[in-house]
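Subject: Protein record for review, amino acid sequence with backbone structure tokens
Category: Structural biology, sequence-to-fold work with a learned token vocabulary.
Format: Residues in single-letter code; tokens as whole numbers, each standing for a residue.
Body of memo: The sequence and its backbone structure tokens, given next.
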Amino acid sequence: MQKGAIRVQTENIFPIIKKFLYSDHEIFIRELVSNAVDATQKLKTLASVGEFKGELGTPEITVTLDKEKKTLTISDMGVGMTAEEVDKYINQVAFSGAEEFLNKYKGQTDGANIIGHFGLGFYSSFMVSSKVEIFTKSHKPDTTAVRWECDGSPEYTLEETSKESRGTDIVLHINEESEEFLDEHRIQTILEKFCKFLPVPVKYADKQLNNTHPAWTKKPADLTTEDYQNFYKELYPYAEAPLFWIHLNVDYPFNLTGILYFPKIGKSFEVQKDKISLYSNQVFVTDEVKDIVPEFLMLLHGVIDSPDIPLNVSRSYLQGDPNVKKISSYITKKVADKLDEIFRNDRKSFEEKWESIGLFAKYGMMTDDKFSEKANKFLLLEDITEPGKFYTLEEYKTEATALQTNKDNKLVVLYATNAVQQDSYIQAAKNKGYKIVKLDNIVDAAFINNMEPRWDNMMFTRVDADIADNLINVDEKSESVLTTDQETKLKELFGHIPQQHVKVELKGLSVDAQPVIVTRPEFMRRMKDMAAVGGAGMSWYANMPDEINMTVNANHPIYQQILDESDNDKQQKQVRNLADLALLSQNLLTGADLTAFVNRSVELMSAEKKN
């Protein structure tokens, strides 16, 4: 029997491992199963180059829980270790066997199947164990099995033992503080999380838990549409079918594989982020991928696998590295190319999916200049008066330039955010031949503000920002059918309206136009809309009062009736009601003012009935 002290690179590393090295104790299972995968893949490599001539069989990894003995055992059928190798790889903390193996067999294996790089993974077992035993037998002929034991102190024992088959059994004696890891369901949940796609079969409770050949490890040419859809169901069993997907496959200047799916998203933007999982050689690492995947693509679902993404020693956190930025740029380019391809090859399908695609595209255009350059070609604007009719930017310019170019030579893009609420404004603009597009999702307010300065000679104006006559250019002509005295009287009646921040103006509009039209200046309304959805630095605007322009159509016949009325009190109530109706159409009449409007309306109708 050999006894000795663990040779560590730093003084008393065990407390550090137990408390600080791994942020989540359940990671010990990932580390130990990953080591078992390494041992298995090493054996396969040795067999492929002729250095192992024995019977390979079908190696698998078995996880066994014994609640009575309070042990958890991870067993593999891999290369195993001799006494000398145990002394070298286990007793010298932070000496990585995987790293040495890769260096030795450089050129004969690409390393894609060797997971470990740190040499500390095994010691994560001491986070949850009062004692750890290793029973191992090397694949090399004429070697003796050995047993290693350590209780978490620097002292260990190493002795010969009997073991029939090659491979390694790691036996963890779970400590009192960690008895959660003696629960069958807890272990299964952890194994399914970390080992779902490991390349070697992992069995627990007589059942294989993993898919050893997930879709992203295969060539796109070998996969059908059904294969991609089935893999999505495997990842997200209860999710609605994805719109489409992108298969990532690059080996220079970094290794990266994966499949990213575009989920169907509604206007409410209610979707879970953190649905992209990062793997390293099929080992789950994290679903915190914000440093790898651009922010605007965090709503995608799927898997990214790369051995080149730098991780810290616990494999839990990304570290700053040029590769991370390169990978992010590559993913952005692939997404832009895919969207452009779908748009060019199947525009009808692209338009049908635009409600979801538009969220990604607009978010990306705001945050990534290179993506924006490509997206300018496939950005779509839907005509709100003809649902299903879409314009590209160039098409909208062609359609609208003649009528919607203002005196500053800017094309005015008219838009609506609510077809029902803004219907009267939409119809008024449509009657002038204007093209009104729908911009009604949660990112549109920010999108307009962000893109307007970038697009030459274009500006956005909501269709209810002014009366139709003034949407493109302010129309100074105002020919009223009222006499000077009638106009004076009408101004006096509207002057009694108590609403604050209301600017009243009489204009001679068409007799078909509404008697009172309420509009809100584009800039201030847009800022308040941004503030409402939590725009950064916008809270100041949220507290600002609404600016309201009230245009009185002096040519509407109803004013002749009101002015002919002899009862001044009744005149004021009628005018107030017309003003309140216009405010109501813009959702600007609330609380006590709304109650007063209802009561006043009933009063006026009752008076009419008596007369």
In short: The chain has 19 helices and 22 strands. The two ends are 115 Å apart (CA to CA).
